[in-house]
Write the structure tokens for this entry.
Amino acid sequence: MENIDLMSSKVGFIGGGNMASAIGAGLIHKGILNPHNVWVSARTDRTLGFWIDLGAHATLRNGEVVDNCEIIFLAMKPHMLNDALQGIQATIKKKTAEKLFISVLVGVTLETLMNKLKLVVTHPRIIRCMPNTPMMVAEGITVYCSMNTTEQDESTVGALFSYIGVSESVPESLINAISALSGSGPAYAYLIIEALADGAVKMGVPRPMATKFAAQVLVGAGKMVLETGRHPGQLKDEVCSPGGTTITGIHALECGQVRASMMNAIEAAVKKANELTSKIK
């Protein structure tokens, strides 16, 4: 990847909530973005204190973000997109021809984004991406697709997300399916960590130790899959001694239909994302 100077890039976030915080704070904490070159807008002051503490510019005017930034993340709730664009139109000081917009809005297609953004920018360049919150600790996943972008745009986006996890360009048709895994997946993982810790607590392990070890179990298992390249089933079998404790636990999980539950969760999330896509035009 070519060397890209992100420290001098002016990056904005329209919407300053959880996802914007994960991206912005992740990049600022790693020294990739200069907080003095970051602008954030929100509907109320409630979320802006976090950004002020980071050293970023905070405002209630969406147009101020577009005026000052070359790269603008659309990070509001999907149903708030129209209101956010109206806010830009009402507060922007200068109509601009080109800007790079990066959308993290679930269910909003490139075509819909293009039609709506043309109201505020003559020739918008658009990246639609699905990141996840572990970017805040540089362990994120981001998949993205684009419309009307340049090679420089693609390099910039790749560079941004490479610092806070792994990223990959994918066909737009896969975005909803992948986001059900990578975007919603951390919530499922937290549920598993909590459940494992609860089981250990039930058997007498102190809560702080149980939570710490349960979290590390997922970290270690994930690294084993990624770094060894072995199939998860093979790694599972290597832990299961004949007649041992682990295979007994696996049997208990299978009785609880844990695999089917996880598959059902992915399927349900994809269906919901598809529903949102059909509603947002």
Q: What stands out?
A: The first strand starts at residue 11 and ends at 14. The beta strands are 11-14, 38-41, 57-59, 71-74, 100-103, 125-130, 140-147, 165-169. The chain has a mean pLDDT of 92. The chain is about 50% helix and 15% strand.
